[in-house]
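Note to self: keep these together.
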Amino acid sequence: MNINWHAMYLREKALREEADERLVQLRKALAKPLLIPADWNLTVGEGRVLRGFMRSEMLSEAQLRGLFAVGSKGGLVSEGVVKTYIHRLRKKLAAIENQPIQINCKFGFGYWMPSASRDFIKKAVGAY
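Structure:
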């Protein structure tokens, strides 16, 4: 059995570089403040998720886990934590001004926010 160690190394290096680039992008996205109206009663974690959706229409579960890793001591949060934040955020956003804001799940891809919901949030945040 012949193992091509060099090819394995190159593949792992490329994956590591891709993951590092995604982390840099997430950190840049979180660096810009988003002034969320206080009456929405969002926690810091829910605000992070909302900021993520303002930067990208669809977020994978891995990207959402990365959003929380940026603020923690480097450890990734569990899948259950992400689902809990999404659930709580959906509940709070659904109660806003007769404008239900949706966060949908697309199995195998992640979570996405329709453009109508994103536009409403951008207007609300811009006006705040």
